[in-house]
Records
---
Amino acid sequence: METVILRVTDGSSDEEQRALQKAADCIRGSGLVAFPTETVYGLGGNAFDAEAAKKIYAAKGRPSDNPLIVHIAEPEEMDRYCYTNPLSARLAEAFWPGPMTMILPKRDCIPGSVTGGLDTVAIRLPSDPVANRLIRMAGVPVAAPSANRSGRPSPTTAEHVVEDLQGRIDMILAGNPCRIGVESSVIAVEQDHVTVLRPGAVTCEALRQLLGEDRVSVDRIVTEKVTGAFKPRSPGMKYRHYAPKAPVLLLEGEENTVVSYLKKKLPDPEAGLLVYDEDLDELAGERTLSFGKRLDPDAQAHRLFFCLRKFDSMEEVRTIYARTPRREGIGLAVYNRLAKAAGFHILKF
Ligand code: TXA
Ligand code: MG
């Protein structure tokens, strides 16, 4: 299949409007379009169309029990696709448009092929102007997982999408690098309680501030390896995705000990080092990448997947030794993605 690549920035010029119109037509005609969002690039198809959902799973090579997020352009649309409650309305008001996905009981119009057979649906209203305009023009809710091949880190640039999906989908809207860089916070919403299933830029702290401490919990799958019979509430969390080809080993503990451990690994041609900007004085090298300052989790989120993909392009790297980010704010999301890539292997000093 030939993949049409159209450049966009924010979708406002006449030329970009025409590109968006083509993309919207493609989605309405059961086609697949990759597009930028503020978190990561998404691979969109018509959420009413079971065929489009099938194509999404095939293009990504994704297990079909892992449900897709349904993207909307206006908060009012939510009621058409799921059963809302006062808590979900409050969350929508506080955090939409933005990097938050809510899980709620689904209505019949959303096919089971989109929700992996679950009776709930994930809904998100992105803030990125290209995403927003595209969904609006499509006139249908847009089912979109991250636009990576299953098992690879999520794409944060158009080049990443081309790398993974060129020839497998109809169109790529090639825009700017994603502002945030990690996927949206996935939150299961009940009558008077929410559970964070995947941490993101809408942080646990922000949720607690809005709803109160005792109304917010974090699923154990965010920070623990779960095995055996445990059935996660968010099917996607059980897969080792966000993962580069080389295994990741997280290093945690006293600063000097971690740095000297990394220093010993520096000359090893099979070792990739993922470090903080501050470490570069001592640890700069051909296979060293920094993902931001130690106390700057926004920068770390922004650069994480870029770095993991960069390690993929270094043929010789067999293990990635990584600093363990602090778990506060969006840092919890950075920690979660790295720990998952590491299969929760953490070397503690
Ligand atoms: O930022 C994002 O959320 C991006 C952009 C494109 O919007 N999308 C994204 O989609 O990350 P995906 O498919 O890669 O991740 C969706 C996650 C998966 O872990 C999936 O299991 C979970 O959301 N999910 C979807 N529907 C669910 C449901 N009904 N119940 C529980 N978890 C669900
Ligand atoms: Mg994904």
---
Amino acid sequence: MLRQNLIRLSIALCERSDSAPGKVLLYDPHRTRSESEHFEIMTRLNRLVPENELYLVFQPKVDLETGVCSGAEVLVRWNTSKGEISPALFIPLAEENGSISKITRWVIHRTLSTVGGRSLLELGGRPLVYAINISVVDMRAPDFVEFLESLLELYAVPPSQIELELTERMLIDDDTHVRGNFAALQKLGVRLAIDDFGTGYSGLNYLNKFFVNTIKIDKSFVDAIEPGAQPGSLAVMEAVISLGIALGLELTAEGIEHAYQATYLAERRCHLGQGWLFSRPLSFEAFVDFAERCNLRESA
Ligand code: C2E
Ligand code: CA
Ligand code: CA
């Protein structure tokens, strides 16, 4: 057992990004604890049975001007025998060990069977758009678009009511499969969004090369909107809004927790908002109730 642990910890030490041939790495019990936790999560991910352990929550997106619910971002949850593990922790590990493909495909299947099967594609005469997070590993898979297309057909979901949230990193990836899939998704007619916009890469050149529908303004920019904020601290966010408007893109701000943030963003013509001010992520039933309250009241 001791020998097994020693070997495992040595492998974890060698896999660190700061390791290099000939470099001495010191044993740090705190860091090593998180490395062994990661190792355990990876092992669990390899044995994951999505149908039994994963479930979905839906976080509403709201039109900042009218209060109408325009749809939801679909977020995955993982319930293990040891309790819930946050996606912020397990998704990067699943990307690392490849199990993300199984997770994404389960998320797509479950989302489409839920919204298509229950005909929840519009409310009060307004179409609802469901946004699904996609990883670079999915975009590198040659059969990804075919998989998505077959499920859209099976559950009779119009492609225009599904939005895929991609990251900036993906768009500067020079992988030919990523480029091919991007073009095929555009042809299929699903909506494409850039998640966490402005947090990764400063090169905006990809906006000319790839067609996207939506920019998601990251929570870190929204957090800067606070009473008495220095104008300089909001300059980047305002530039992002202006850029989005100039390019004719839809803008969604995420992580809105306060009414003054929503007002500020609406005044600058940011279209949609998402965050605890409106709603935490909900079960599908609770999401439908929320959307009915917003949209049926609005159309009454
Ligand atoms: P994300 O795509 O940026 O998702 C937004 C995260 O912010 C979600 O955390 C959401 O619950 C949280 N959030 C929303 N509004 C607020 C707010 O007002 N205040 C605060 N403090 N937080 C808010 P969550 O669900 O824990 O997801 C974390 C990350 O995990 C996501 O970040 C996304 O990168 C990843 N993720 C979640 N579900 C999936 C999935 O199905 N597939 C993939 N590939 N990644 C996923
Ligand atoms: Ca997202
Ligand atoms: Ca985000």
